[in-house]
């Protein structure tokens, strides 16, 4: 049956624990449970917290909070979008909460934004409980498709300028989004000059997952980079992004465009200097992702699985 979100609330506190972040937990006080239930794919929990606002949890893992969601949504969207000279057609895989879609729509060149989400319940929960993230669903440029993302891309070859995969962790329904066939489908669905950006896990915890992911991407794309952002409610307060370009020699760390003054005024995390800085990694992570060196940031996800 899987995990039940309400079972993770004890004495008025929700605690996120998982094999992918062994020996640690993230706990948030629960002031009100807005929703708890199970879709055809996963457990959904929505609650409020006095510091972080409304919190969306899938299978026991925090996905967004209304206080810090912009740090993730802006970076996963604008890193690839501002690295492209003029994106017109954009595909978002996952991201059923609508936050990435909201950011995509800030680019005036975008004429069409397609969101492919496997779980319709996430979209409906966001519309009801997270309206600040879900506002983009009403934009006339948006098409929402409830389907498997890999299957959708197989039917849409050479169709998109930018593809953004906003996935949960590589367990449960999101596991397929971290496999080489998914990245191959993404490469085929991108047009010449296109870019892709995917959730790339935490460099403090998951270098053993990140390195083979980057290796798989480098076999498919001539240009691959790794960047990161800080999100307080994610494991270790940090999450990374794997960014791929279909063209060789693309400087992913240098934006091709800059936000207008009006758009920059609406952004709370992203800016051109932050874009460049996101690719500057601490040495332990740089050695691991750029040189293939040993992960010396601590215990890894593989260690946790081996302990089971």
Main features:
11 helices; Rossmann fold; alpha/beta; Spermidine Synthase, Chain: A, domain 2; disordered C terminus; 4-stranded antiparallel sheet; 308 residues; 7-stranded mixed sheet; 28% strand
Quick structural overview:
The protein has 308 residues and is α/β, with parallel strands linked by helices. The protein contains eleven helices and 14 strands.
Topology:
Blueprint: E1 9-10, E2 13-16, E3 26-29, E4 32-38, E5 43-49, E6 53-58, E7 61-65, H1 69-82, E8 89-94, H2 99-104, E9 112-117, H3 120-129, H4 131-134, E10 142-146, H5 149-154, E11 160-166, H6 180-189, E12 190-199, H7 207-218, E13 223-230, E14 238-245, H8 261-266, H9 272-277, H10 283-290, H11 301-307
CATH class of the largest domain: Alpha Beta
- Strand arrangement, largest sheet? 10-9-8-11-12-14-13
Helix content: 25-40%
Query: What is the N-to-C succession of helices and strands?
Result: EEEEEEEHEHEHHEHEHEHEEHHHH
Q: What portion of residues belong to β-strands? A: 25-35%
Q: Return the domain count.
A: 2
| The CATH fourth-level homologous superfamily of the largest domain | Vaccinia Virus protein VP39
Fill in the CATH topology of the largest domain. Rossmann fold
Structural description of this entry:
There is one protein chain. With 308 residues, the protein is an alpha/beta fold. The protein folds into two domains: 5-65, Spermidine synthase, tetramerisation domain (Spermidine Synthase, Chain: A, domain 2, Roll); 69-303, Vaccinia Virus protein VP39 (Rossmann fold), CATH 3.40.50.150. Helices cover 29% and strands 28% of the residues. Mean pLDDT is 90; it is low at 294-308.
């Amino acid at each position: 049956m899987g995990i039940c979100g309400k079972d993770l609330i004890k004495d008025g506190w929700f605690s996120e624990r998982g094999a992918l972040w062994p020996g640690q937990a993230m706990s948030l006080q629960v002031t009100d449970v807005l929703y708890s239930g199970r879709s055809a794919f996963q457990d959904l929990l929505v609650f409020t917290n006095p510091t972080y606002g409304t919190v969306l949890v899938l299978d026991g893992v925090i996905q967004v909070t209304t206080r810090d969601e912009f740090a993730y949504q802006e970076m996963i969207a604008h890193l690839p979008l501002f690295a492209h000279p003029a994106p017109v057609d954009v595909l978002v895989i996952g991201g059923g909460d609508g936050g990435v879609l909201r950011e995509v729509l800030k680019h005036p060149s975008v004429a069409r934004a397609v969101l492919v989400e496997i779980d319709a319940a996430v979209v409906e929960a966001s519309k009801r409980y997270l309206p600040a993230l879900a506002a983009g669903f009403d934009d006339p440029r948006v098409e929402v498709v409830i389907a498997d993302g890999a299957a959708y891309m197989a039917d849409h070859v050479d169709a998109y300028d930018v593809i953004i995969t906003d996935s949960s962790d590589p367990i449960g329904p999101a596991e397929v989004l971290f496999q080489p066939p998914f990245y191959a489908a993404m490469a085929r669905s991108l047009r010449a000059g296109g870019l892709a950006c995917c959730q790339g896990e935490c460099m403090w915890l998951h270098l053993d997952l990140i390195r083979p992911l980057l290796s798989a991407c480098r076999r498919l794309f001539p240009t691959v980079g790794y960047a990161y952002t800080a999100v307080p409610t994610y494991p270790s307060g940090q999450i990374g992004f794997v960014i791929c370009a279909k063209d060789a020699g693309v400087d992913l760390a240098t934006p091709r465009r800059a936000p207008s003054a009006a758009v920059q005024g609406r952004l709370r995390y992203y800016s051109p200097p932050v874009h460049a800085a996101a690719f500057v990694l601490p040495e332990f992570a740089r050695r691991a992702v750029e040189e293939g060196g040993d992960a010396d940031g601590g215990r890894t996800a593989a260690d946790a699985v081996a302990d089971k």
